[in-house]
Predict the structure.
Amino acid sequence: MTTAARESTPSFDLVVVGGGPAGQSAATTAAKVGKRVLLVERDSELGGECLHRGTIPSKTLRETVLALQSLTRRTGLGDAAADAALRLLGGGAGRDDVTMASLVSRLEEVVRAQETSMRAQVRASGGVTVWHGQARFEGPHDIAVVSPGGRERVARARHIVLACGSRPRRPADVAVDHELVLDSDSILSMTYLPRSLVVLGAGVVACEYASIFAGLGVRVTLCDPGHRPMAFLDPELTSAFARAFVEAGGSLMLGAPVTRVESDGAAGVDVELGTGTMIRADKVLCALGRVANVAGLGLERVGIEVTARGHVKVDASCRTTLPHVYAIGDLVGPPALASAASEHGRRAVRHALGLPSPASAAVAPFCAYTIPEIASVGLTEAEATARHGAAVVGRASYRDLARARISGYDEGLVKLVAEPDGGRLLGAQIVGDGGSELVHVAQMALIAGQDVDVFVETTFNYPTLAEGLRLAALDVVAQREAARRAA
């Protein structure tokens, strides 16, 4: 104990460690059914990595890029419009004088608004007490919390939910100095927009930042030993992303490991690939995954196991090897999305309290906020074929959508996956602007168990991107009818 005598131990129905999307979801789910909840957050505000260092900051920068690209596409002025806007951001002196602060000028406003919203949601749920400080296990049911000022308190709970998030992984052979070699926490701390950037990795975070900086005119090289970016996604989607990235001026160096990253301390960084290729860049972004924030929790003290990759071991209900303790969000590994983390929180608490989970919880969407963005829900073509022996796939190109033409969206695809007879919808994949919103229409159809015909028979506003769902469904229907005639 770090200060005076420890206070008496209050009891709660649930202690949640971590105040990001996962922890907030868990805490409010329990509070709304009348449970007494303690929410522990180590930072001074709720929100976690998602709000302060990850999702919200990167998406705020992305919106600036999309606005610049919109000027190019929608005004008819071409790149001159975006160049002029960048000069204004740089104080009129030129692109090399553009500061990162000017590109994310709204970030503080966005973060403060979200902090206010999260506090309001926690208060509105009723029954949630918030402590700020570092948490650790004192015993199977006891959590000690040390505040920034050194005050130590202990809380006891019937159930505990761990939602401590993750941090960027730092490989031993890449010296992240946060000046020339950065990670996803420090990339936005750069003073000026670099002229060139090497991105190590080809996962979601790597591809998001690579496409964002390429959209700002930075010479970006994406390096990874794999043979395609975001290899866990449908190849049609990643191929479309790769084409758009290259068209934006980016370079893909795939299929070869990075063997050396060396900074000279001032002028730049040298990156050497296994092929012998050398790349010189102003900055390097190391985006080679994330690691769970388990250090200091004292998991070993209470027998909670972690996997070989450092994630907390859980079952389908997010229950750890200590049955009354649950782990959610980034602590348990991929997909490491805020949306998935929130669903984990609801699932874990409902299981702990013996409440049923809605069937719709199994139909969760995915989105990568790359440029263009990629969204998916349900089964991919490959998964549907493996499960059902075959699948009927309908496609609609953004080039066939009037709204996409008007908005200047050159790259985009809507893909619907149906059962082998071309009836029930199994999944949807979208690459293109608006995909993160559009995918929810397909999500609702999946939850309702609808056939693809629902999109044919539904009236969509014109012109909209949602018409892509109807065109893709019409493609499925045409294939279905052709198969029937052939039979």
